[in-house]
Write a structure and sequence with these properties.
The complex is a heterodimer of chains A (143) and B (1008).
Chain A lengths: L22 H8 L12 H5 L10 H9 L10 H4 L5 H5 L6 H13 L13 H6 L2 H12 L1
Chain B lengths: L6 E5 L3 H12 L3 E5 L7 H5 L2 E2 L4 E2 H14 L3 E4 L2 E9 L2 E8 L13 H5 L6 E2 L8 E2 L2 E2 L11 E2 L5 H5 L5 H5 L12 E7 L1 E4 L4 E2 L16 E3 H8 L20 E8 L15 H15 L4 E6 L9 H10 L4 E4 L5 E3 L5 E6 L5 E6 L1 E6 L1 E2 L3 H9 L24 E3 L9 H18 L26 E6 L11 H9 L4 E7 L5 H14 L3 E6 L2 H14 L7 E5 L1 H5 L6 H19 L8 E4 L3 E5 L3 H12 L3 E5 L21 H14 L3 E4 L3 E8 L2 E8 L2 E7 L1 E4 L3 E3 L13 E3 H9 L7 E8 L13 H15 L4 E6 L9 H9 L3 E4 L7 E5 L2 E8 L4 E7 L1 E6 L1 E3 L3 H8 L26 E3 L9 H21 L1 E4 L4 E3 L9 H5 L5 E6 L2 E6 L9 H5 L5 E3 L4 H12 L3
Parallel strand pairs in B: 1-2, 1-13, 2-5, 13-24, 15-22, 16-17, 16-22, 17-18, 25-26, 25-27, 27-28, 30-31, 30-36, 31-32, 36-47, 38-45, 39-40, 39-45, 40-41
Antiparallel strand pairs in B: 3-4, 6-7, 7-12, 8-9, 10-11, 14-23, 19-20, 20-21, 29-48, 33-34, 34-35, 37-46, 42-43, 43-44, 49-52, 50-51
Helix pairs in contact in B: 1-3, 1-11, 3-14, 7-8, 8-9, 11-23, 12-16, 13-14, 16-26, 17-18, 17-23, 19-20, 20-21
The chains are: A mainly alpha (143), B alpha/beta (1008).
């Protein structure tokens, strides 16, 4: 669950994510979304454009939080989230899941662990990745 | 205070308004019914079939429409709305605007105007959900009441521009079209008001991701009802709109506009799960190659008989159920529809369907806001009428009552119960005005036909296309004309429509008919309707005969029209032969003892007793235990009510204060004799047996909580029932830091196949209490489907938000409760993550099934009433007669009917009281004269008939020639068992004499 390393670029998997209390408490400090309100109906997952690439489905991420399973912070899903808001838009419980994804990323980022090192992007990647993807990537990095 | 006005305003002409109006009008009140649309019938008229019996919806509704149309005490105002309500309970002044119809009462409903209209076929009929065309002058549907056309003022060229050739006026043979007609303002005085404006379907365009309105083959469930209907756009063939091809793969998406905060409808619409099952079953019945898939969140089949309906859908009809909410629907270039969904195990799948049906939810509708404002009644956050749990039919304005989906989503039987209940309330409030404003039904004097040669009129019904598409109706009519004694024969599109009744009366007079044969559907639903018409024409009601050429002919020979027509002709020939022998029968009228017996002193029994007493009738209330209250004694609070015991106390006090309610505690009914209006029963009391005479019986014996046989219940004292948990919470006892609740303990499994309906809400209410008292407590609810239907859904959402953890399991993956040293553990497969979840619990609370009382079998035998497959009492008709028994004079309320909430028990108790009081108020009861008849000289007094009679309608009496059998007319159902068992052939069945039946059989063998 980390990026490929190249040259002097660091592997984020070396750093361990530590959350001492309950994940939900940490999360609630970062976003006011009601994770427990989730019905686990699967709408978010079915509508997610990146679902095929994700290791955990979107609703599984919420379930991990509800059951206080901190491994969720090491999942690929939270980083693959493109912040497109499709899940938030269609959630029947009106939960802004995009915000929850962002908050989960923040928990990781605040421990100075980053999934993507911008400086390590290759020229080929910079050429081929759509601009929108960069925008959302920066958004993730600057919170 | 002056006497209240003995009239009631009923707003809304759907099934709720209809039931209220008929109950009130029959009980002696004048009723003004106001309906916004041009015809009554409401949503039920649009449905193809009804769950869970798959009865044809309009077929069971249509006789009630006609009853409303011709009831002398009901004044029907369609195309009308209420504009002002002033005054107070007992004396309201109501202003009503009747919008210009531009068609007068002279209209005969012939359709020539619609045929002539220049806009014919260019407008869309709202009744058919705009899937079918209409003209600018039209009727919504063929069986509409009133059968009076209406000009669509928005589209009619003459109304809009004043420039039209007015071909309609030219075409009308009755000169019924009047473009000068103006809106009429009317003022009526009423004592009370029943609000029954119903619901609107959710506007599916608002969920743009499902493509409704953009993709041709995405339809709403209400549109699909019309597609299924024989009178719908495709004449009952299941076709998809884009290309008229038969769809194979059809997907239903449930919860569209329900359980969805994003569109403001957080509530559950209660009926969609079951109606989607119904639509899938019917679609498959129409075309065996259809492959239905239903996408759902929780399967909510909580109603009586619904769970076995679900099981049949899955096991017998092969309907596929997928637990997943759909995010979006995409259209392919071929107009197929692609759906991507996540399986419960977390796998992403994509499938293509030929057609998608959106199971749209129920909304209060825009119009009711104005209505509520006019009446000054409060609406809740969703726009439904606000009511209290203990007063389900009362608005916050005294004298204004409510029933049906206006106070929250509900199905037809619940609506009918509330409608009768609202009628009881509205009637009780103005009971001293009873009979002051009504007209006695004028009976046309009966023509004496004795000595006349039979003159038979034959009516052959098309039943839309139900018969007409498979039987050559004109050929049957032609054939009938040639049969002996037939002096007139004709065809009808719908013989049961209101205009057909008028024609029938005219023809009877015109041709001097003295026997009438209708070849159509079944006497079970339609005989009373035609008999009433005969009465109006001055003929004895029993000079009527029916041939069933639909259920027994066109429906079973759809693939062979020639044979179907031949069989219809055989059936008509046989019935004509019988009709020649039928005789007029005299109806008996018996006095009614104006006193009720209520069996069971729980919430339903107490409520019913009080409701009867409020209408002025004496009541004997029998309770087996030493105190009133039943199961309610164990309920401390509900989701909406903090103090149930206080309410129970007030009921007990009111009963104690009543001079006309006679309470028998520690007592049991040991004997029930007599018949409707004249029962005589024995109550075993601690002071010895007591005889009571009464006219009606209300069965309110309740149900019991079963004893769980699993999950260490009874072995480990930390495993308790939800009832015990509730007691501990209510009494402030500690319940521990971790509580695990397990649902469906004995429900929806092999021990009780049905759903116990209330347990999900019970678990939620207790979980909320625990979390509110101690937010750090851990509460787990292990469930199969969370069935917090209707407005209870918001409490479910709240429980989730308070941090209650919900874990779903299936019947084949039940949780395991164990002890590990001192620890009590619950192990369950967490389906979303696919892992075992361990819970170390302080308390495990089980939700035991609610089961019928063990002693209900004896009572059922005593009353001669049936039980259903689950052991609960079986009502006369699950949709339209939910509180009546098939046995006259006996009514049903509360959990003896099926598990239900307090609110539902209260509504049903009022309904049972309303039905009983229409009987008691009349003071007399008419008895069906088609009963057993004994030729006394032939009777040898052997008593076989007495032993065999299932209705206790035979007795032996000592007469001059010895012991002789004697019929108790009011008890006899005319079933014929006695006649079949009589060794001396001394018993004949009136209206089914040997002569009549033999003639019918002879006619089958050859032309009579």
């Amino acid at each position: 669950m980390a990026t490929e390393t190249e040259g002097g670029c660091q592997d984020s998997a070396d750093k361990h994510i530590v959350v001492s209390g309950k994940l939900i408490d940490e999360l609630e400090g970062l976003c006011e979304e009601d994770v427990f309100g989730c019905y686990q109906c699967g709408t978010c997952a079915a509508g997610c454009p990146f679902m095929d690439e994700m290791d955990l489905t979107v609703d599984e991420v919420l379930r991990y939080v509800i059951l206080d399973k901190k491994e969720v912070l090491e999942s690929k899903t939270i980083w693959l989230c493109a912040s497109c808001f499709a899940c938030a838009e269609r959630c029947p419980r009106d939960i802004n899941i995009t915000k929850i994804m962002e908050a989960l990323r923040q928990i990781v980022l605040r421990q100075n662990i980053d999934e993507t090192d911008l400086e390590c992007l290759t020229d080929e990647e910079k050429r081929s990745i759509p601009q929108m993807a960069f925008v959302s990537l920066f958004r993730k990095n600057i919170g | 205070m002056s006497d209240p006005v003995g009239a009631v305003l009923v707003v809304g002409g759907g099934i709720g308004g209809i039931q209220s109006a008929l109950d009130l009008a029959d009980a002696g009140f004048k009723v003004y019914m106001v309906e916004d649309k041009p015809a009554i019938g409401g949503a039920m008229a649009q449905l193809d079939k009804t769950f869970p019996t798959n009865d044809c919806s309009l077929c069971i509704l249509s006789p009630k429409l006609v009853d409303v149309g011709r009831h002398p005490n009901i004044e029907l105002m369609t195309n009308s709305s209420v504009t002002a309500i002033d005054g107070k309970a007992g004396d309201f002044t109501v202003k009503i605007t009747e919008r210009a119809r531009r068609v007068t009462e002279a209209c005969v409903g012939c359709n020539l105007c619609a045929e002539a209209c220049v806009l014919k076929g260019r407008l869309r009929n709202e009744f058919d959900e705009e899937l079918k065309e209409r003209s600018a002058i039209y009727i919504p549907y063929p069986q509409a009441v009133p059968l009076r056309y209406v000009v669509d003022p928005v589209n009619c060229l003459q109304v809009k521009t004043g420039k039209c050739a007015m071909k309609c006026v030219e075409a009308c043979p009755a000169n019924a079209i009047d473009f000068d007609m103006q809106d009429i303002e009317r003022t009526v005085e009423v004592g009370s008001i029943v609000m029954a404006p119903g619901f609107e379907g959710f506007h599916a365009e608002a969920k743009g991701e499902y493509g409704y309105g953009r993709f041709d083959n995405v339809v709403t469930s209400l549109e699909f009802e019309r597609i299924l209907s024989a009178s719908g756009p495709y004449e009952g063939h299941v076709l998809r709109p884009s290309d008229g091809k038969e769809p194979k793969r059809i997907a239903w998406i449930n919860c569209v506009g329900s359980r969805d905060r994003s569109c403001g409808n957080e509530y559950c619409s209660s009926v969609c799960c079951t109606y989607s099952i119904k639509e899938a079953i019917i679609a498959k019945e129409h075309s065996g190659s259809v492959e239905p898939t239903i996408f759902y969140m929780d399967m909510r089949t909580h109603g009586k008989g619904f769970e076995s309906y679900l099981n049949r859908a899955e096991d017998q009809h092969g309907i596929r159920f997928i637990r997943s909410r759909i995010s979006e629907v995409q259209e392919t270039p071929g107009k197929d529809l692609r759906i991507r969904y996540e399986s419960e195990e977390g796998a992403l799948r994509e499938e293509t369907f030929d057609m998608v049906v959106l199971s749209i939810g129920l909304e209060p509708g825009e119009g009711v806001k104005d209505l509520a404002e006019t009446a000054g009644i409060s609406l809740d956050d969703f726009g439904f009428c606000e009511t209290e749990e203990t007063r389900p039919m009362e608005t916050d304005v005294p004298g204004v009552f409510v029933c049906g989906a206006f106070s929250g989503p509900k199905d037809i039987p619940e609506t009918v119960m509330e409608a009768s209940g609202a009628a009881a309330k509205a009637g009780a409030m103005i009971s001293s005005g009873r009979g002051t404003l009504v007209e006695e039904r004028e009976f046309v004097p009966e023509r004496d036909v004795s000595g006349e040669e039979p003159r038979i009129g034959v009516y052959v019904c098309h039943c839309g296309i139900n018969i007409g598409a498979y039987v050559d109706v004109p050929a049957v009519v032609e054939y009938a004309r040639g049969l002996p004694n037939v002096v007139h024969a004709e065809e009808n599109i719908y013989s049961c429509s209101q205009d057909a009744q008028h024609t029938l009366i005219d023809r009877i007079k015109e041709h001097g008919l003295n026997r009438v044969l209708v070849a159509s559907c079944t006497p079970r639903t339609h005989e009373p309707l035609f008999q009433e018409t005969l009465r109006e024409a001055g003929l004895n009601a029993h000079l009527f005969e029916m041939a069933n050429i639909r259920d027994q002919c066109s429906w079973v020979h759809m693939d062979d029209k020639a044979t179907a027509t031949e069989k219809a002709q055989d059936l008509v020939r046989m019935s004509v032969a019988r009709a020649a022998h039928i005789e007029p029968l005299e109806e008996l009228s018996l006095d009614v003892i104006q006193h009720g017996l209520v069996i069971g002193g729980g919430l339903a029994g107490m409520t019913a007793a009080l409701a009867l007493a409020d209408q002025g009738f004496g009541v004997s209330l029998v309770e087996q235990e030493d105190a009133l209250g039943g199961n309610m004694r164990n309920i401390h609070y509900t989701l909406d009510n903090d103090n149930v015991q206080e309410y129970l106390g007030s009921l007990v006090d009111r009963i104690g204060e009543s001079d006309i309610i006679d309470v028998h505690l520690n007592a049991k009914v040991s004997e029930i004799g007599g018949f409707v209006g004249n029962f005589e029963s024995v109550i075993d009391t601690p002071d010895g047996p007591e005889r009571v005479e009464h006219g009606a019986i209300i069965v309110a014996t309740g149900a019991v909580e079963s004893a769980p046989a699993e999950y260490l219940f009874g072995e480990d004292e930390r495993v308790i029932s939800q009832t015990e948990l509730e007691r501990r919470i209510a009494e402030g006892e500690p319940v521990g830091r971790t509580v695990a609740m397990i649902q469906c303990v004995g429900s929806r499994d092999e021990s009780h196949t049905y759903c116990s309906r209330v347990c999900c809400s019970d678990a939620i209410k207790n979980a909320i209490r625990i979390k509110e008292t101690d937010p750090s407590a851990q509460v787990y609810i292990l469930y199969r489907d969370m069935r917090t239907y209707g407005l209870k859904e918001s409490h479910y959402g709240r429980a989730r938000e308070l941090g209650v953890v919900f874990v779903r399991f299936d019947l084949d993956g039940k949780p395991a409760v164990d002890t590990d040293g001192d620890a009590l553990t619950v192990k369950v497969k967490e389906k979303i993550l696919g892992e075992e979840l361990f819970i170390e619990a302080d308390i495990v609370a089980l939700a035991p099934a609610i089961e019928p009382r063990p002693d209900r079998v004896d009572l059922a035998k005593m009353l001669k009433v049936p039980l259903n497959e689950d052991g609960f009492f079986l009502e006369a008709h699950v949709k339209l007669r939910p509180v009546d028994f098939a046995t006259d004079g006996v009514f049903l309320a509360g959990m003896a009917h099926s598990p239900k909430t307090m609110e539902e028990s209260i509504a049903q108790a009022y309904a049972a009281a309303a039905r009983a009081s229409t009987l008691l108020a009349k003071g007399e009861v008419r008895v069906n004269p088609a009963i057993a008849d004994i030729t006394e000289e032939m009777c040898i007094g052997c008593g076989l008939c007495v032993t065999n009679c299932p209705f206790k309608a035979m007795e032996l009496v000592l007469k001059e020639g010895g012991r002789k059998a004697q019929v108790i007319p009011a008890s006899c159902k005319g079933c014929g068992v006695c006649g079949a068992s009589c060794p001396k052939l001394a018993i004949t069945m009136k209206h089914f004499t040997n002569e009549e039946i033999t003639a019918q059989i002879e006619a089958y063998r050859g032309v009579a």
